[in-house]
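INFO  loader      accepted 1 record
INFO  loader      residues=200
INFO  predictor   begin
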Amino acid sequence: MSFFFEFVRDPMTVGAVLPSGPALAELATAGVPRTGSPIVLELGPGTGAFTEIIQQRLAGSGRHIAIELNPRFAGRLATLHPAVDVAIADARSLQDVLAQRGIGQVDVVVSGLPWAAYAEKSQHDVLSAVVAAMQPAGVFTTFAYVHARWAPPAQRLLRSLRSRFEEVVISRTVWANLPPALVYFCRRPHQVSSEVPPLA
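INFO  predictor   done
INFO  writer      dumping C-alpha cells
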C-alpha cells in the first residue's frame, strides 16, 4: 500500500507525503520503557513506523493500543502487528476507546498525528483527552517538522504542550528524517479541565 496514495486520497488526515523514518521512530518512542508492563497508547500510527519500535521495546510485555482513523492503515497495522490492539477511531475519542478496554489511564502516549492539519479546536480536544488519560508520571511524545516549526500551527501546539505539562523538552533535529524533524518529550501532565478554552 502506498503511503503517498493515502496522502493524495486524504491529505488532511494523513498529513505527510512520506512515513516517518527509522531515526525519528527510535527517538519518538524513547519514552517507552523496556522493563515492567507499561500501557502504551499510540495515536495516528499510519503504516506503523513507530509501532514496530514500540513493539520491540515492549518485547511482549505491557499493552499497546493504537488508534488510527484511516481504515486501510488500521487493517494493515493489525495484520503486521497482531499483538497491537488497533482501534479505528478519531483520536479525540481516545478515552472512549480506553474505557471500552477497561483502561483508565496509560503510562505513555506516542503521537504520530498531523498537528498542522488540525484546526485549533480539534488540537485542543485531542490534547485535553491525552492529558486526562495519562498517569501523573506519564510521558507524551510527538514530533514536528523543522521547516514548519515557526508556523502558527506548530507554535500553537508548543504553547498548548507547555500549558499542559510540567516539563517539555525539545530534542535535537533528526536530519536523517525526510523532512527533518524534532521530538517533543512532555512529562508530568497537569490534570486540567477539558473545559479550558483553547490557546490563541
